[in-house]
Amino acid sequence: MTQHTASAEETYAYGARLASCLRPGDVVVLTGNLGAGKTALVRGIASGMDVKSQVSSPTFTLLHLHQPGQAGGVALHHFDVYRLDGPDDFIANGLDEYLGGESIALIEWGDRVRQALPDRVIEIDLRYGEGADDRTIRVSFPGDEDRCGI
Ligand SMILES: Nc1ncnc2c1ncn2[C@@H]1O[C@H](COP(=O)(O)OP(=O)(O)O)[C@@H](O)[C@H]1O
Ligand SMILES: [Mg+2]
Asked: I want to staple 15 with a disulfide (CB 3.0 to 4.6 A). Which of 40, 45, 46, 146 is the partner?
């Protein structure tokens, strides 16, 4: 499915709706150039999931853990693997231990460590459009195409 947005706020709002399509254990790979809006979308997803802490760009930390805001909620594990050398580096840093389980993993630049991830991942690609604030967001659920109807 494809969504066009014309501002960071619209991307945030779309992320909040997209949260309803995610399930515990999902691993989501986010691709798109620097500034495409990966972190903006993660902020929206976090608001839709109702997690406790604010999402910031994890560029210097690789991973931020966000606990659920309510009992029975789902945790969000937010990765940014831009600085890693590849799948082996992902595993050497122990990051694979934070995938799956009962949490949802959102991985900025996840294509760079694709071989360290489960076979089945959700893919979200963000692209710049014509205007400075235009973005196209493509979401796919391989093997589970009917999952989400937003
Ligand atoms: N439609 C849009 N969607 C998301 N971000 C947008 C949009 N239009 C402008 N922006 C701006 O682009 C930047 C996106 O930054 P960020 O989400 O950190 O990108 P990334 O994580 O992909 O590097 C922000 O400064 C945001 O305000
Ligand atoms: Mg980012």
From this structure: 45
Report which of 49, 46, 47, 101 is spatially closest to residue 78, judged by C-alpha positions.
46
pLDDT, tens digit, 9 for 90 and up, residues 92-137:
999 999 998 999 999 999 999 999 999 999 999 999 999 999 999 9
Is any atom of ligand 1 closer than 6 Å to the C-beta of 103?
A: no
Contact yes or no for 128/34 (Cβ under 8 A): no
Q: What is the CATH number of domain 2-140?
A: 3.40.50.300
Backbone angles phi, psi at 104, to 5 degrees: -110, 130
Determine whether the shortest distance from the Cβ of 34 to ligand 1 is under 6 A. Answer: yes
Number of H helices, E strands in the chain: 3, 7
Q: What distances in angstroms separate CA 96 from CA 1, 72, 108, one per listed residue?
A: 28, 24, 14
**How far apart are the C-alpha atoms of 60 and 27, rounded to whole Å?**
21
Q: Which contiguous run of DSSP H or E holds residue 147?
A: none
Q: Whose CA is nearest to atom 8 of ligand 1?
A: 133
- Both tokens of residue 85? 């050398």
- Report, as an integer, the average pLDDT of 38-49: 97
